[in-house]
Amino acid sequence: METTIYENITEDIVNSTKEIFSTMIPMEIKAEDSFYQKEAMISTDVMSLVSFTGEHSGIVAFFCSKKIALKVTSSMLGMEVDEFDQDSKDAIGEVTNMIAGALKNKVLDTFGAMHLSVPIVIAGADLTISSASGEHEAMKINSSVTCNSQNSWLMVPFSSDGQKFNVGLIVKKND
Amino acid sequence: MPKVLVVDDSAVMRKIIKKNIAESGMTVDEFVDAGDGKQALEAVSKNEIDLILCDWNMPNMSGIEFVKALSSLGLPKKIPVVMVTTEGSDAKMAEAKASGAAGYLTKPFTPDQLRDTLGNYLLVK
Prior knowledge:
The structure holds two protein chains of two kinds.
Chain A: H1 9-24, E1 30-31, E2 35-37, E3 41-44, E4 46-54, E5 56-64, H2 66-77, H3 86-106, H4 108-111, E6 114-116, E7 120-123, E8 126-129, E9 139-142, E10 145-148, E11 153-160, E12 163-173
Antiparallel strand pairs in A: 1-11, 2-11, 3-10, 4-5, 4-6, 4-7, 5-12, 8-9, 11-12
Chain B: E1 3-7, H1 11-23, E2 30-34, H2 37-46, E3 51-54, H3 63-72, E4 81-85, H4 90-99, E5 103-106, H5 111-118
Parallel strand pairs in B: 1-2, 1-3, 3-4, 4-5
């Protein structure tokens, strides 16, 4: 099932995201053409989800690589962060929360009042495999996470210094 | 010198708020952290807090529930609470004010907006 289309929703997502970055995250970002994610499975390093309920319900999501997550965290905190840790998850969760909040305020007249959840952030684990004896070299695996949805996401891609991230939206009007 | 309680379930956001306050030259003696409304009530009972900055959407006890609970404590000194939240509708602002919040700042905010909002409560060096 495809997410219900509302006029200007892509523009509202773009403006909400740019508003957050221009105010609190000193990173240049550029929006690209939005699309509907037809594949049910989305594979990513990091995903952050804020759900909302009300006359409409759905999810605002932020999908990114760990590299982008580190860049966002460093920019938000004004200090170099080179290890993906709790602060990075927290930062991406807060970014998603602010994007969802800004979007909620923009679509109030269309969607009606909505209640936002606290963000949930899921990240793939960095696994290290080595022999018990230590004879063989360790092998590092950066596993990604997958999101399986029956509804297609409206995806708005953004780029920053050649790195990409997506802001996704699923929304449905409740009966 | 004032003691400021920063209530937000995001540790990163608490760091950003404290960093912005420090860099803006506002004088704060000590920051106290809380991750939700329940922790904030505990912090108020254990510390002499002069100003509270409080998020709205948090687990366990929301910011607005905390503001209402704080008002009902009947403390001898009323502690001003400034809501710092993504909730930006007029209805939410009116609800916060009616519940006892003294100020309101919508996320995202610039350092200047934070300084302007807190200027009524904190001195600038």
